[in-house]
Amino acid sequence: MFLREGPKKHLYYLLLVVGLICTLGQAAQASDLVVHFIDVGQGDSILIQTPTGATVLVDAGDTKAGRQVVVPYLRKLGIQHLDMVVMTHPHFDHIGGLIPVIEAYSVGQVLADGQIHTTRTYEDLLRLILEKEIPFKLARAGGELTISGLDEALVLNPKEPLLKGLNNNSVVLWLRYGQVAFLLTGDIEAEAEERMCTQGKLPQAEILKVAHHGSSTSTTSTFLWAASPKEAIISLGAGNTYNHPHAETLRSLDKAKAKVRRTDLAGTIIVISDGLSYRVVGERETLP
Ligand SMILES: [Zn+2]
Fold first, then answer.
1. Domain extents in the chain
2. pLDDT under 70 in the chain at which residues?
3. Which uninterrupted H or E stretch holds 191?
4. d(CA 98, CA 104)
């Protein structure tokens, strides 16, 4: 179909993208693990759908993104309940969107870093979790989670005593389905990465959610060498004021031979795995 420039073309494009997201999310086989790196602009939001139907949401962008992007995204996928919600750390670009999500959905449990932060958003979120009487679990390194459909789910960070700075104490998860592993890093920085590498063996992961939106304060070469990811997914907003991703990080990832995918360029990025191999699709990459 030939489309002329103008609002109609824009509308058609939007419809196509929305349809594509639904199709991709549903194209997976029943035995597949599907991980969605939802494009929430500058922030993080990752939805995990396991082969047995368990649903885990790690962060939900800021409050606006939660309301306008994450909740509609979950609705389109037909999700009715979240088994687990993970708050990696209390910054607004991660937890703000959890308020509309938790208002809209029943949640089995909340897993959190447990750091003290005094913003209104954080207080509102904690109050909401209390009001809805959602079981609240503290994440600490060495912890193992039971997530139906996954072969392993480990908490690698934070660790006591906590490090300086909210970012460094982000919840870091290592998830494995068959032979495919994911490393979700929140906004950790070099100090947390170093501690994970020196105080224990950092498990390898095919897919790395690059820490802190591609900031040069994270993604050290030691950490990359240990994790040795094949895919590096950066969640960030186009034209953000932090200049993420930083050139040094992109160079390090290139040197480590990790394929970089960015939500500011590709839109929502979906990884589908049968436990033996995986495929990665960006919502804009598949359009002509
Ligand atoms: Zn962040």
1. 28-282
2. 1-27, 286-288
3. helix 190-198
4. 10
Beta strands in 38-157 (DSSP E): 46-49, 55-58, 81-87, 106-112, 136-138, 152-157
Cα 83 to ligand 1 centre (Å): 23
- Which tokens sit at 140? 């600490």
pLDDT tens track for 154-181:
999 999 999 999 999 999 999 999 999 9
Q: Per residue in 114-153, pLDDT tens?
A: 998 989 999 999 999 999 999 999 999 999 999 999 999 9
The rounded Å distance from CA 24 to ligand 1 centre is 26
Distance 283 CA to ligand 1 centre (A): 22
Q: Is the pTM of the predicted complex or chain greater than 0.85? A: yes
Write the burial class of residue 80 (CB in 10 Å: 0-12 exposed, 13-18 middle, 19+ buried): exposed
CA torsion sign for 57, 189, 234, 95 is positive
Distance from the CA of 209 to the center of ligand 1, in angstroms? 12
The continuous run of DSSP H or E covering 5 comes out as none
Interval 40-54: pLDDT, tens: 999 999 999 999 999
Tokens 């606006």 found at: 64
The CATH code that applies to domain 28-282 is: 3.60.15.10
Residue among 288, 269, 265 nearest 280 (CA): 269
The residue type found at 2 is F
